[in-house]
């Protein structure tokens, strides 16, 4: 059985996003490219979210925070000791909706 460690980041509603259709994004790319320097631009196609246009600064900030899940076996003894000693206050405890946001079909379920 494999055990995985995940890091969850809460999303914030304060993050502004402009929305544009794919057709309008193609026709007015210069405008939306400029707009993406100040806020992410959500691109929709047939009424569904299909892509985001973000500034290079935003992309690099997001990429630098990206972490893949790693198997527990890849952690050092010192890292495992830190995890075992860690305590999470009730203020930062996860809730079930948090788990639903991060799970998908490829994520191993507990106990499987």
TrEMBL record:
Chain positions covered by the region annotation Disordered: 93-112
Pfam families listed in its UniProt record: PhdYeFM_antitox (PF02604)
Domain of life assignment: Bacteria
InterPro entries per record: Antitoxin_Phd/YefM, YefM-like_sf
Recorded family membership: Belongs to the phD/YefM antitoxin family.
Function: Antitoxin component of a type II toxin-antitoxin (TA) system.
Name of this chain's protein: Antitoxin
